[in-house]
Every structure is written in structure tokens, then in C-alpha cells.
Amino acid sequence: MSVPHPDDGATAASEDDAQALLSAAALASFRLNGRFLAAAEELARPAGLTAAWWQVLGAVLHEPLPVADIARAMGMTRQGVQRVAHLLVEHGLAEYLPNPAHRRAKLLRPTTEGYAAVRRIHPAHRALALRLSAEMGPDRLASAVEALHGLNRALDDIAAEETTAPGVASPGRLP
């Protein structure tokens, strides 16, 4: 809870409202993340993948990337992506390529088998997408996606401010 301002009850109430909204958004996001992960596991399993394997392969479908870039794009830890990348390579679903920009940070890209595994997910993914769109309505679903992007941008901005204003709470360093 925020500390009330004795001289301004309206400010204290609006701070409490903001804090309650942040908590509600976080809790809804945690639950949604769990639901998406469960759905991803269900969709990926018949293709011989896990949700994490699908996530990492999905990050490199259009261009090979180093592990650190995959981690940033997917909101994962570098170590987690590295572990999954090694498993993908070990299972013949991805391969490492030399990185002309960095000698030690190799690029990861799917193999033919990796692309095929992701393609096997598409029919079930499409069916779930159509069911979700029918349930919510396409406009409401698009608005929800835009709101999620907006929350991510706002948290990115707050995190960036932390690098220029030490001592201010950021998503990566809450008090």
C-alpha cells in the first residue's frame, strides 16, 4: 500500500487505485501466462516439442539469432535459452552457425526438421486462434493484444528510466 499524503486525500486515493490496478494487471498476466503455457504445451506435444522449444524455434524462424537476442525477444533468461538451444541442436531441430558479428556468440537457426515440427503445430494453433477469436470477437482480441503490447512498452520505458535515474523502482528492481 502507498503511504497516504496527509494534505491530499485525492492523491492518496489515486495512488491506491494505481497500485491496485498494477496488482490486478500482474495477477491477470500471471494467470494468462500459465494458461498460454499450458495451451502451448498441448499444441507442441504432438509435434514432438515443448512450449519452450517451440518458443525458441519461433524466435529464429525468419532469421538466425544469437542466444542473447532470443532471450530479449522472448522475455526469457539467456541461460534458459542456452539450455533449450542445446537441446534443440542435440535433437536435430536446430543448428549453430558462425556469427560474423561476434566470434563466440553463435547464431541459432532451425534445421529442416525444426521447421517441419513447427509446421505440424499450425493446424491446431489455427483452430485455437479461431476459437479464441470467435469467443472474444476479433476487435476485442486485437484490443487485448494492443493493451498487452502497451503494458510491455510502459514497463520497458520504466526499466530504461531506471538506468538514468538510480533509486527509482523499476520492474527489474522493485523495493
UniProtKB/TrEMBL annotation:
InterPro entries attached to this UniProt entry: HTH_MarR-typ, MarR/SlyA-like, WH-like_DNA-bd_sf, WH_DNA-bd_sf
Record-linked SUPFAM superfamilies: Winged helix' DNA-binding domain
Occurrences of domain HTH marR-type (ranges): 18-157
Tree of life domain: Bacteria
Transmembrane segments: none
Alphabetized GO MF terms: DNA-binding transcription factor activity
GO BP terms, alphabetized: response to stress
PANTHER family attached to this UniProt entry: MARR FAMILY REGULATORY PROTEIN, TRANSCRIPTIONAL REGULATOR, MARR FAMILY
Protein name stated in the entry: MarR family protein
Organism: Streptomonospora litoralis
